[in-house]
Write a structure and sequence with these properties.
By secondary structure, the protein is an alpha+beta fold. Helix content is 20%, strand content 38%. The protein has a ten-stranded antiparallel barrel with strand order 25-26-27-28-29-30-31-33-34-35.
C-alpha cells in the first residue's frame, strides 16, 4: 500500500477522503485533537507522481500566485522602473526559469504537508477512496489492489474539477483548462479565455503581462456580478487600460482546432463573430468531484448540482459522515474549505466549531487586486436594507501615489440606522494583503484565548459554548492592518466597539477582568431557589457569583463567589472539561440567628455524552473544613450532580440532585438545600 506518514492499520477514528486544503487541514486538526486519522488523496501530477494539496497547491492557488508575482515584476521592470529613476536594460523573459521557480514553490508546499502529517501522526494514503455503507472505505492505491478500511467518522473532501464545455473539449494542447494554462512552455501570441471570473482574469493577467494578446469572452452582460458594482466597473476600466480585451455578453457556440490554433465562434447582441487564437483557456467554473466516490447504499444525498447535501455543521444525510470544501454548498474557496475542515474535526472531537459563511472574504489576485467581504450594495438594495456607503479613492493616498498604483478605491457599507458594517469592498494595490478579520459577534466578547474559530490556534477553546458561536450576530471589524486602509475607517470601527464595552455592566467582582462568555443559571425545587452569574475571562478562568435562598423550614441564605481554572481534562475523544478552584461563601442561618463564612476547595466537571452531544453530565463539589471556616460556621459542603440537555447553543435545561449544607457552633447541620432540583442555563 502506498503510504506517507505514520503507519496505520485498517481501523481509524477518522478517515478523510481528499487531501486538499479542506481535507489535509481537517485531518491534521483531528489528529491534534487526539484522534487516529488517515487521509486519502488521489492527486497525480503530469509525471504520475502523487502529492497532497489538491488543486490549490498543485494546480491552482499556489502556482497561479507564483506566476502572478513573477509576471507582475516582469511588467514593472519593463514599464515602471524608469519612472522611479531605475534604469535597467529592457528585461528579457526566461519563461523556463519562471516555470521552474513556480514548480519549486509547489514542491515545497506539497512536501510540507507530508511533513505535517508525519509530525501529527496522520496516515497519508495515495490512491482513491470510495465510501461504502457503515462508514467503511474501499481504498485503492495507485496501481495496487483495493483494501477495506473502517472508521467511526468519514470526512468527504474531494474538491472540484474544471467544467468542460461540450463544444470546447480539453485536448491538452490548444484547448486547455486552468492547470494547462499554468504549464505553458511559451507565451502564446494570441490567447483566448472563456470566462471572466476569478480564474479567467488571473490567468489572463499573467499572460497579458508576459506579452500575449488576451481576449476574454464572458457570456454574462455584467462584469464580475459577484462583486460590488462600483468596484467591478472600476476594475474593468483598469483591465482595459492594461490591454485586456474583455467582451461581455459573448456566448461561445463552437470551437474548431486549426493548423495554427483554435477558431472560436461566439454571438452577442450585434450578431455572430469569429475569434482566432493560438491557445484557448476554458475557465467557466468547477464542478464537485463526486464521481466514483459514493456507494448508492452509503446514504449520502446529492443536490441537483451534484454537491453533497450537508447541514450547517457539514453533516451529511449518513450518520457520522461529513463533507467539506468544494464538494458542498458555498463558494469554492480554499480558506472556506479549511475552516470547514477545522470545524468538523473539532465537532467530531466533542469541541465547538463554527463557520460564519456570511463573512467569508473573496480575493482576485490581479493588478489591481480586488477583495471584498460581506454584502454588496446591490444585494442590500435587493433585500431592502437601508444602508449608507463611504468611499475612499487611492488617488488621495500618499502611499498609493508613491507606489505608482493610485487607481482604485475602498468602499464601506453600513446600516443606515445602526452603523453596523455590512460590507467592505476594495479594488486597488495590495487589497488582498490587508489583514482583515471579520467578526460576526459584538466586539466586547472578542475571544481572548486560542479558539477553534481559526485553524491557526495553538490549542482549542474549551468554553461551553465558545463565544465565537454564541450570541446574536453584530459584525464589526476587529483588526485592520495599517497602510493604505484609511484612518477614518479604523476610527469608525473603534467607535463601534466602545459603546458595547460601556454597556457590558459586569458586577464589581469582575470589574477588572476581560470578559468572555457569560452565563446565568437558575435552579429551584419546592424549598429553595438559586441564581448564579458566571463569566469566562482570559480564556480559562471562570468567575461566578450566586445567591441561594431556602424557605423550606430552616430559612437560610447563602451568597457565594467562585474562582476556577478550567481546561480540557481528556483531550480528544472523551469530551471532558474540568475546573479546579475555590468558592468563598457567606452563610446566613436566618432561623438560628447565626452566620459565618467558609472558603471551599473543589472544582467542576462536564462530560459530553458520546454520539449524543446535546446531553452532558455536569457536577461540582466544594468542601471547607473547620480550618477554612469562620464566624459561627465550622464546616461547609456544596455539591451538585446534573443531567443537562442543550436546547440551543445558548440554552440548556437540566435536572439533578444537590446538597448544600453547613455546620454551626453547637448546632446540628443546617441544610440550605438537599434533594432533587431542576433549572435552566442561559449563555450570551
Amino acid at each position: 500500500m502506498a503510504r506517507a506518514g505514520a503507519p496505520g492499520g485498517s481501523k481509524y477514528d477518522v478517515i478523510v477522503i481528499g487531501g486538499g486544503p479542506a481535507g489535509y487541514v481537517g485531518a491534521i486538526r483531528a489528529a491534534q485533537n487526539g484522534l487516529r486519522v488517515a487521509c486519502i488523496d488521489a492527486w497525480q501530477n503530469r509525471d504520475g507522481a502523487s502529492a497532497f494539496g489538491g488543486t490549490c497547491l498543485n494546480a491552482g492557488c499556489i502556482p497561479s500566485k507564483a506566476l502572478l508575482e513573477s509576471s507582475e515584476l516582469f511588467h514593472r521592470a519593463a514599464h515602471e522602473f524608469a519612472s522611479h529613476g531605475i534604469r535597467v536594460p529592457r528585461p528579457e523573459l526566461d519563461l523556463a526559469a519562471m516555470q521552474a521557480r513556480k514548480a519549486g514553490i509547489v514542491r515545497q508546499f506539497t512536501g510540507g504537508i507530508q511533513g505535517l502529517f508525519k509530525a501529527n501522526g496522520v496516515t497519508g494514503l495515495f490512491g482513491r477512496g470510495h465510501l461504502l455503507p457503515g462508514n467503511r472505505v474501499r481504498f485503492t492505491p495507485h496501481g495496487g489492489e483495493p483494501e477495506l478500511l473502517a472508521a467511526e467518522h468519514v470526512v468527504l473532501a474531494t474538491g472540484s474539477s474544471p467544467i468542460e464545455l461540450p463544444f470546447a473539449p480539453f485536448d491538452g494542447e490548444t484547448i486547455i483548462d486552468s492547470w494547462g494554462a499554468l504549464e505553458l512552455a511559451a507565451v502564446p501570441a494570441r490567447l483566448g479565455v472563456i470566462g471572466a471570473g476569478v480564474i479567467g482574469l488571473e490567468l489572463g493577467s499573467v499572460w497579458n503581462r508576459l506579452g500575449a494578446k488576451v481576449t476574454v469572452l464572458e457570456a454574462l452582460d455584467r462584469f464580475l456580478p459577484m462583486a460590488d458594482g462600483q468596484v467591478a466597473k472600476d476594475a474593468q476600466r483598469q483591465f482595459k487600460k492594461q490591454g485586456l480585451d474583455i467582451r461581455l455578453g459573448a456566448r461561445v457556440t463552437a470551437t474548431e482546432r486549426t493548423a495554427t490554433g483554435v477558431t472560436v465562434r461566439y454571438e452577442d447582441d450585434r450578431g455572430q463573430h469569429t475569434l482566432e487564437v493560438d491557445k484557448l483557456v476554458v475557465a467557466v467554473g468547477r464542478r464537485p468531484n463526486t464521481r466514483d466516490l459514493l456507494d448508492p447504499l452509503a446514504g449520502v444525498k446529492l443536490s441537483d448540482r451534484g454537491q453533497i447535501e450537508v447541514d450547517d455543521d457539514c453533516r451529511t444525510s449518513a450518520p457520522n459522515v461529513w463533507a467539506v470544501g468544494d464538494v458542498v454548498r458555498g463558494p469554492m474557496l480554499a480558506h472556506k474549505g479549511s475552516e470547514e475542515g477545522v470545524m468538523v474535526a473539532d465537532l467530531i472531537a466533542g469541541r465547538h466549531g463554527h463557520v460564519n459563511y456570511a463573512v467569508i472574504p473573496s480575493v482576485i489576485y490581479t493588478t489591481p487586486e480586488i477583495a471584498w467581504v460581506g454584502q454588496t450594495e446591490e444585494q442590500l438594495k435587493a433585500a431592502k436594507v437601508a444602508c449608507k456607503s463611504g468611499t475612499f479613492n487611492f488617488a488621495a493616498s500618499g502611499r498609493a501615489k508613491a507606489m505608482e498604483q493610485a487607481a482604485g478605491h475602498v468602499k464601506v457599507l453600513a446600516d443606515a440606522a445602526t452603523d453596523r458594517i455590512l460590507g467592505v469592498h476594495i479594488v486597488g494595490p495590495m487589497a488582498a494583503r490587508r489583514s482583515w478579520r471579520w467578526s460576526s459577534r459584538p466586539a466586547p466578547r472578542t475571544c481572548s484565548a486560542p479558539c477553534t474559530r481559526t485553524r491557526h490556534s495553538p490549542r482549542p477553546c474549551t468554553r461551553r459554548p465558545c463565544p465565537w458561536t454564541a450570541g446574536p450576530s453584530t459584525p464589526s471589524i476587529t483588526r485592520a492592518n495599517s497602510g493604505i486602509i484609511p484612518a477614518l475607517l479604523r476610527r469608525e470601527c473603534a467607535m463601534r466597539i466602545r459603546p458595547g464595552l460601556a454597556r457590558l455592566g459586569l458586577p464589581l467582582l469582575f470589574a477588572s477582568a476581560t470578559a468572555g462568555a457569560h452565563e446565568i443559571d437558575l435552579s429551584f425545587n419546592d424549598d429553595a431557589f438559586r441564581v448564579t452569574y458566571a463569566t469566562v475571562v482570559q480564556g480559562n478562568l471562570r468567575l461566578d457569583a450566586g445567591w441561594l435562598s431556602d424557605d423550606g423550614g430552616q430559612e437560610g441564605d447563602l451568597v457565594h463567589g467562585s474562582f476556577l481554572v478550567t481546561g480540557d481534562a481528556a483531550p480528544g475523544r472523551q469530551k471532558v472539561t474540568a475546573g479546579v478552584g475555590v468558592r468563598l461563601a457567606y452563610l446566613d442561618g436566618d432561623g438560628r440567628d447565626q452566620d459565618g463564612y467558609a472558603l471551599g476547595i473543589g472544582g467542576s466537571l462536564r462530560w459530553i455524552v458520546p454520539r449524543y452531544d446535546r446531553f452532558a453530565v455536569t457536577g461540582e463539589y466544594f468542601w471547607a473544613p473547620d480550618v477554612l471556616a469562620g464566624g459561627d460556621a465550622e464546616k461547609y459542603v456544596d455539591g451538585t450532580l446534573r443531567l443537562n440537555y442543550s436546547v440551543t447553543r445558548q440554552a440548556e435545561v437540566y435536572a439533578g440532585v444537590r446538597y448544600v449544607g453547613a455546620e454551626f457552633e453547637d448546632q446540628p447541620s443546617l441544610h440550605f438545600d438537599t434533594g432533587m432540583h431542576a433549572g435552566l442555563s442561559l449563555r450570551f
